[in-house]
Prior knowledge:
Blueprint (H helix, E strand, L loop, with lengths): L5 E6 L22 E7 L3 H12 L4 E4 L15 E2 L18 H15 L1 H12 L11 E4 L3 H17 L4 E4 L16 E4 L3 E2 L2 H14 L3 E3 L4 E6 L4 E5 L2 E10 L10 H4 L2 E11 L4 H7 L5 E4 L5 E5 L6 E5 L8 H15 L8 E12 L5 E4 L5 E4 L5 H17 L26 H18 L1
Parallel strand pairs: 1-17, 2-3, 2-12, 3-9, 5-14, 12-19
Antiparallel strand pairs: 4-8, 5-7, 6-7, 10-11, 11-12, 13-16, 13-17, 14-15, 15-16, 18-19
Helix pairs in contact: 1-5, 1-9, 2-4, 3-9
Amino acid sequence: MDSSVFHPDFKAKPFWWEAIAMGEDDPPAELPPKADVVIVGGGLTGLNCAIELGRGGTRAVVLDAEPLGFGASTRNGGGVSGGNNVGKGLSGAKGRQSPEEMRDWLRAIMGDASEGLAHIEALVQRENIQCFYERTGRFVGAWTPKHYDGMAAKIDTLNEFANADASMLPRARQREEMASDYYYGGMLVNRTGKIHPGLYHRGLMQAAQRCGATLLGRTKAGALTRTATGWRVETSRGPIEAGEVVIATNGYTGSLTPDLRRRLIPVASHIIATEELDPELARSLIPNQRTLADSRRILTYYRMSHDNKRVIFGGRARFTQVTPEVSAPILHAMMLARWPQLKGVRVTHAWTGNVAFAFDYLPHMGVTQKGLHYAMACNGAGVAMLSYLGAEVGKKLLGKSNKLPVFDGRDFPTRAFYTGNPWMLPMVGSWYRFRDWLDRKAA
Length: 443
C-alpha cells in the first residue's frame, strides 16, 4: 500500500469527531426501572424519535451498545438528500404495470422522501442546532454520456414529484461546478444540503434531553420479552420495563432482532479527509460549495469540510470493513483521478461506517410480527431519511400522525437462506467495478 498518502498526524477516526468528545460527553444517567418507550439505537433515528415523543409528553429511554452516535450517524459524509435518491431499484413497484400506476407510485415515494430535507431544516432551526447546515445543492457527475442521457430523462420526474429544482449541466459547463473534466456533464439538484454530522448528532442529543429523554451509551440491549403491560428489556445495566420498544439500529442491526437483520444488507462506506489545503486551491475545487457525487455503480461522494479547508472524500473503496491502510490509498487515488491538482496532498483521517440497503432499495418503518416498532434501510440517504422516519415513528406512537409515510407497513422483503451476513458483497463489488470499467471504456 502507498504509505505516502498518510499525514504524519494521521488518525484512524472520523474527522467530524474533532469537534465533539466522542464517548466522553455521554450523559451520566442511571437506567430507570420503567419507561414509556425504550429505543434501541442512539443515532439519528433513535434521537429523532425520542425528541418527537418528548414533545408529545412521552418520555423515552435511548440505549446504545457503544457511545451515543458511535455508528454511521457521526461517520457519514454529511450530505442531506431531498428525496431524489429514493427507490432506485423500483422493485417495490412490482405489479404496477400501467404508466399511471407507476407515476402514482413514484409520486408517493418521492414525495414522502422529500419530507426528510424539510424535517431537518425545521428541526435544526427549532432546536437551534449549530451544525453548519446549508442548502447548497448537489452536482451528480455522469460517468458516461449514456448516464447523462439517463439523468436527463429523470429530470421532469424529480422536479414534479420531489420538488428537486434539478437541471442538467453539459460537459462544456462542468467547470462551473468542479475544477475537473472527469465527468461527461451531470445533474444539478438544488434542493439538497450538507451538514456537520458530529455537531448535528450532538445537537440532537441535547434536544432529546431537553424533551425529557434518558440517554444511555455503552448500554447493550439484550433479550426482549413480552409482558402483560408491554416489554421487559434486558440490558448490560440490568432490566427495564417498557410500554413499547423501537429498534433504530439500521446498518448495525444484529442478533437482537434476527428477523430485521435478514432484511438488511449492511455495506461499508469509507471516507477520508485531507490535510488543510492552500486557500486558493481549496476555493477553486467546488466553486459553489455543493456536495458532489457520481453515477458510477461504485459510488463516490465528496465535498469540502465545513470550514472549506479540506476535502472530505467517500465511496465504496471496498464493500466490506477494511483497515485505513487499505481504504485510504484507494480513495486517495479516486480523488486524484478527479482532481490531479491534489497530487501530494495527504490524508489526516480515514474511517468507515455501515449503511443499510433493503432488497427493494426503499426505506422501511413499521411493526414486526412480535410487536417491535422499527425504522431503517437508509439506502445511502440516512441523514435525511432516518431523521424523518425516526420522528414519524414517534408521531405514530403518540397517535398524532395525520398521514403515515408510504414507507410504513410495506412488505419488507428478504431472500431465502439470507441471515444478514452479506457474504456476496465482494463478488457484487467486483462485478460492479467491471461494469463501470466497461461502460467507461465504451464511452
